[in-house]
Amino acid sequence: MKKLILITLITFVGISLVGAQEFTGEGVEVSQSDPIVSKKNYLGYLILGDNDVIFSRNTIKRKPYLIRYDENMEVETKVLLTPNIIPKRSYIESIIPFNGGLMMFYSKLDKARKTNDLFYVVLSQDDLATVQEETKVFGLTYSSKRNSGSFDIAMSRDSSKLLAFANTPNKRSKGARDEVSVVVMDKDYEIIWDDVLSIPYADKDFAITDYDVDNAGNVYILGKHYKQKSKRQKKKPRGTYKLIGYFEEGHDRQQFDLRLSNKFISDITYFVKDDGNILCSGLYSNTSTSGAVGAFYLEIENETLEVIVENLVEFSLDFITQGLSERATKRTKKRAKKGKDVELYSYEVRNLIEKEDGGLVMVAEQYFVRVTTTTTTNANGTTSTQTTYHYYYNDIVVVSFDEEGEIEWHDKVEKAQYSTNDGGYYSGFNMVVKGDKMHFYFVDQAYSVPGLDIDRRTDKKAFKANHFIHASLDLDGNKEVQSLGEIQRKEFRPVPKEFVSMRDGRSTIYLRGRKAYKLGRIMVD
Q1: Distance (Å, rounded) from C-alpha 309 to C-alpha 296?
Q2: pLDDT under 50: residue ranges of the chain
């Protein structure tokens, strides 16, 4: 067994707790850990283990670590991953809690043999000791490092099956079929089946967008097949979403075209129900694949892949203009009055939530990036060019369907988040479900908080301040929005995209400061 280095937390000093910022709200309690020194210590992401134990994948002094936290969100144990657990020059693909352990998948390129191999080890969730040594999952052969393939992991809804997925290197020859390699494992890490699956479309014409494994070990691939240029028609979708199912350990392949009559599917996602049927939901447009004029619901029978329920709901003009400025609302309504198409734009489906009564809630967020390039010339005639990436994360759209797929209600959680050259690090949201309520946490300037009326002319500082926002929607569509507190300058700032939603309705939160970070918990009534 490889040598394991365990480092137990010692008390960190030098960080003042005086005047530490707190967050609170009606029916909401936010706890925070003491600051954890983050000099040359970068938290990559959080992992929810068994019994609500939290782990994090960190980089400390350019070396990869795995950290376990105690009930108070303080560092309990940490272990150096390279070279103690995995070889040098390995890339950690994913760390998955599975069957009481932590499965750490990593890949390694062999330039001499031109192979890209995927391995895993299993660590104990109790003390991070290695309980299963390095095991190879599969390997890919490539001709160019830029085209060496990629790996990902998915877990079934009941956590009994694990899918290791390899998107093989792109085929260069004309008309070559796309292929993927899959390995399906059970809870004892035994391989149930593995195969190289052929996709019945040319590699260059098919883009995989999602994949999954169901409780029975069947594999599903969602992708978009693009028509050849000669077959494209104006005002018609350029491509069609395809759902391909691989049953009987890959021996039985079935596929279905996910299309809506004379509509463009803007975005779509799905999950496999416990009975094996497939629920799909997303947004559609009348004009393009980037617009959204409504939402749809599809239920597909698992064996025949036939649609047994199909429903569409078109958004009203009032819904489309909800949250817009007065000027933008007037402009949009004027456009609609002229008979022109008016739609939402650039929304991506983030979550599908199955309700206890068999219904479904779809959650989507407006997200887009704009790039600007500025060229300037100084007095000496020297020219310089600067490229800026602008990140926008705006309103959340929530659509509720009943067990028959009929629309019950839809609403927006209004927010406006903008940043440059940071990948939208502090933007986005965290969502957790408790009882009959969905809870959303995000950071913005509290535009949607009722009663928080700040005069821009008399108090510019307060008007521009960011707030930690909590919004909730119950299953009847009743909405509440509140500020949990203004985020003080130079204080710890919440990073909602890195929050972890817990099984009991709590959220584990991550707050980042200049020289330290904190973890904490949000509890709601």
Answers
A1: 10
A2: 1-18
